[in-house]
């Protein structure tokens, strides 16, 4: 854990250097180890008779190096500390024998560095003399063996109160310390002058992960002083679903578990980051399911309340951030025994859990509140932050030319705000180089650097200047806050938006957790002020977070950048949308790419304009990521892109009711009249009218008057045409669109025929068609459509026909097809052709007799067939 106390806290420290109370005296530095290489540790013990609630005040141990009065690395003490119990902080690179308790950079000391133990800034104990550099060590003229270098020192058993005078000589005339040989470690973990008696192993649940999808895991750790033989008894972990008292999926633990070691069970379908330890169905839990740890069927620890279904989660009325759903929970460092009452309320009055964001996986595999991580290293002044790598610039902000970078926007002519936003997106996508999540640490160390102290960064929500080297996941560290919460559209580290430094900011770890994944909105009236970051407010019921006034514009411009940058055109990113509402829990659970609240953010942009800090981070991100935030370069574009949505259009419209009388449809070739003459200005000012056709076949008309009169076009099918009317008073204008459907009228004519339509075989006739009100430009085509084939010819509307031979009287039919070049219509004329009776043939008597008729007809028919050959 790392934390740098503020200048105000240091001032309080010095002013209260001699303050001491009975309550403060309970907590004392009881052991100090300055051994070989990184074998360094410090022990703090409760020498009182009652438990100390470390969360009731801010207890901290802080390192002051080489005579400095400027605070260095610090660790915040949390949880509760029972009477006679100890907290140990050790160096992460120490030998195993020294790795008792909690890994911390507060142990980056040598023999000439001082340590102060404080409560709310007031000194309650010290080691060394503040403000003095003794060279390499403090010594005691009365004890040649005493040294703060290459020794283990333990507080004498007679000492029960801290030394509150940090500026007094050390160790003083009344030396309170016993000296042990270099690299002695057997006293760590217990107060007193002697070595600790080995404590038994203690198995408890130390971490619980209920994340997105199947990202679920549970960690069990031995927090005792010796190894546990899990085969010497029956140790089981059982899942109880939805309030059931019948055990569901169960794991039996086997083998040896060394002190300080952990067992992790994970869901086999979880993301790779959660696949620590062993896959197990005991992780098939949701936020309303209980886990119980047994030894020989006796409860030794639990998470949740056995037999209770809380709905979807267990919560804590005293901690709005605590939840067993969509969170990672880690057991506080101070908890050294399991919770054996599985039916008690959970988490109870003394919540033993520290809450982290959904899908936090970096603590799996080790006990404690902190991330497991890599072994910490001493701060390197040549690196931008702790464990960070140097980055190679990809762009030069000193030569940046906005006219070139944004040329397609500055020279564009956009029909609407969306078109402009798309053009901006194209500009800021070009050159974007994806950073790794580790590289983001480095980018932020430059983008958010304190202008007054190049060794520090400014935290977004607290506004505090903190050491760049204090980056990490421990309480008091600064970490990487996704301003557009990653659960709102891009939960995977591989996605481009996840590592986009334009919306990532340094924030205090605890404040980051408090902000959670809530939308941004005004909630100071209904929410509570964030204790660690005054001026910021959170309302968990309303699911909103309100940042301090000084950075509201910063937050707004980051959210609007993300909404503009990501339009769904990147292979692994959705179209991010800033919405003017609070997103729902279901939307967040589904990782829907939505974030609110747009118009609140719009107002914040105006209230907190772009300043030097915005420009600094825009240039720095550009230098290492290659693209820019357009709303920092051109703040006025916010109104042009988002103003209409938030009731603040870039170009206000004329305040007039446009009244238009127009038909919904008109037949082709008819006159269309659209009348806007009833539109008048409320103040009586003169208005001008301008009509523009915006859809349909191009027409010619006078568009400068209130009344538009135009001939509807001829169309082959029903066709929509549209006109846009612009009404202006000379300063402002207002537009309105009129849509009219042009109805296709089928081609039709009144046609009559003249000429002989009764013919005998072989006779000829001329049939002439007449068209009433015949228009110019028609063409005509004749064709026979039925009857015996006739000889015919046609010219225009005249048809010449010679009647064919027919065996019986019949009609022959001709079709006249009339076309205007686009459409056509047709009509029919029929000519009756009569069969001619050959000479010499008469109807026989008795023709009514069927028998005789057939007798006479058959020879005749045969003869006629011969004649026709």
UniProtKB/TrEMBL annotation:
The keyword Signal applies. Gene3D superfamilies: 2.60.40.3010. Residues 17-163, 192-312 form the LTD domain. InterPro entries: Endonuclease-I, His-Me_finger_sf, Lamin_tail_dom. Residues 1-25 form the signal peptide. Keywords: Hydrolase, Nuclease, Signal. PROSITE patterns: LTD. Belongs to the EndA/NucM nuclease family. This is LTD domain-containing protein. It comes from Shewanella intestini.
């Amino acid at each position: 854990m790392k934390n740098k106390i503020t200048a105000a806290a240091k001032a309080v420290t010095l002013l209260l250097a001699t303050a001491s109370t009975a309550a403060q005296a309970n907590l004392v530095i009881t052991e100090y180890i300055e051994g070989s290489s990184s074998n360094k540790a410090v022990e703090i013990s409760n020498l009182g008779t009652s438990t100390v609630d470390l969360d009731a005040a801010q207890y901290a141990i802080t390192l002051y190096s080489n005579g400095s009065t400027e605070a260095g690395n610090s660790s915040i003490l949390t949880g509760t500390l029972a009477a006679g119990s100890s907290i140990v902080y050790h160096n992460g690179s120490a030998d195993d024998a020294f790795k008792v308790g909690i890994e911390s950079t507060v142990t980056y000391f040598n023999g000439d560095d001082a340590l102060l133990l404080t409560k709310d800034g007031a000194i309650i104990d010290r080691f060394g003399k503040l403000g003095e550099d003794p060279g390499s060590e403090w010594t005691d003229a009365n004890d040649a063996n005493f040294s703060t270098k290459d020794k283990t020192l333990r507080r004498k058993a007679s000492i029960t109160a801290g030394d509150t005078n940090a500026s007094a000589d050390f160790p003083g005339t009344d030396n309170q310390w016993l000296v042990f040989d270099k690299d002695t470690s057997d006293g760590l973990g217990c107060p007193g002058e002697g070595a600790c008696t080995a404590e038994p192993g203690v198995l408890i649940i130390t971490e619980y992960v209920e994340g997105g999808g199947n990202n679920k895991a549970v960690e069990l750790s031995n927090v005792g002083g010796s190894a546990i033989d899990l085969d010497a008894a029956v140790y089981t972990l059982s899942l109880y679903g939805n309030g059931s008292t019948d055990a569901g999926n169960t794991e039996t633990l086997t083998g040896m578990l060394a002190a300080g070691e952990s067992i992790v069970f994970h869901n086999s379908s979880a993301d790779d980051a959660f696949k620590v330890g062993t896959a197990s169905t005991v992780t098939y839990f949701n936020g309303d399911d209980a886990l119980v740890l047994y030894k020989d069927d006796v409860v030794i620890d639990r998470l949740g309340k056995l037999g209770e279904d809380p709905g979807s989660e267990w919560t804590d009325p005293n901690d709005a951030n605590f939840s067993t759903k969509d969170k990672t929970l880690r057991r506080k460092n101070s908890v050294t025994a399991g919770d054996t009452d599985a039916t008690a309320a959970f988490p109870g009055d003394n919540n033993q859990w520290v809450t982290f964001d959904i899908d936090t996986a970096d603590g799996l595999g080790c006990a404690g509140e902190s991330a497991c991580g890599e072994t910490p290293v001493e701060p390197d002044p040549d690196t931008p932050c702790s464990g960070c790598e140097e980055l190679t610039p990809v762009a030069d902000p000193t030569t940046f030319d906005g006219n070139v970078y944004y040329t397609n926007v500055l020279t564009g002519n956009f029909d609407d705000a969306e078109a402009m936003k798309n053009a901006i997106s194209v500009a800021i996508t070009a050159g974007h180089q994806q950073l790794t999540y580790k590289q983001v640490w480095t980018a932020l160390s430059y983008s958010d650097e304190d202008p007054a102290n190049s060794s520090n960064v400014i935290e977004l929500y607290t506004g505090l200047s903190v050491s760049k080297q204090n980056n990490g996941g421990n309480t008091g560290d600064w970490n990487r806050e996704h301003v557009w919460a990653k659960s709102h559209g891009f939960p995977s580290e591989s996605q481009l938006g996840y590592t986009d430094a334009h919306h990532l900011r340094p924030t205090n770890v605890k404040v980051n957790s408090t902000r959670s994944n809530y939308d941004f909105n005004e909630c100071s009236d209904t929410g509570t002020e964030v204790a660690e970051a005054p001026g910021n407010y959170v309302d968990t019921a309303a699911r909103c977070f309100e940042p301090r006034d000084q950075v509201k514009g910063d937050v707004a411009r980051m959210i609007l950048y993300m909404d503009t940058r990501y339009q769904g055109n990147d292979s692994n990113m959705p179209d991010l949308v800033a919405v003017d509402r609070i997103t729902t829990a279901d939307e967040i659970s589904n990782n829907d790419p939505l974030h609110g609240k747009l118009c609140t953010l719009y107002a914040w942009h105006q209230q907190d304009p772009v300043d030097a800090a915005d420009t600094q981070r825009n240039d720095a991100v550009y230098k290492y990521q290659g693209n820019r935030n357009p709303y920092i370069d051109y703040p006025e574009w916010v109104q042009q892109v988002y103003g209409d949505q938030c009731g603040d259009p870039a170009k206000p419209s004329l305040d007039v009711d446009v009244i238009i009388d127009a038909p919904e449809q008109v037949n082709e070739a008819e006159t269309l009249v659209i009348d806007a003459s009833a539109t008048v200005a409320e103040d009586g000012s003169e208005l001008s009218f301008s009509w523009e056709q915006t859809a349909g076949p191009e027409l010619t008309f006078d568009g400068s008057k209130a009344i538009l009169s135009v001939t509807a076009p001829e169309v082959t099918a029903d066709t929509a045409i549209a006109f846009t009317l612009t009404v202006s008073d000379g300063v402002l204008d207002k537009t309105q669109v009129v849509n009219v459907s042009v109805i296709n009228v089928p081609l039709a004519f009144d046609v009559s025929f003249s000429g002989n339509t009764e013919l005998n075989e072989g006779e000829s006739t001329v049939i002439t068609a007449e068209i009433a009100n015949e228009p110019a430009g028609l063409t005509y085509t004749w064709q026979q459509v039925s009857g015996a084939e006739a000889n015919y010819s046609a010219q225009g509307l005249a048809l010449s026909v010679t009647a064919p031979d027919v065996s019986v009287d019949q009609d022959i039919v001709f079709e006249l097809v009339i076309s205007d070049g686009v459409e056509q219509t047709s009509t029919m004329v029929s000519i009756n052709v009569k069969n001619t009776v050959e000479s010499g043939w008469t109807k026989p008597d008795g023709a009514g007799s069927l028998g005789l008729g057939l007798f006479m007809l058959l020879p005749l028919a045969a003869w006629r067939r011969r004649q026709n050959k």
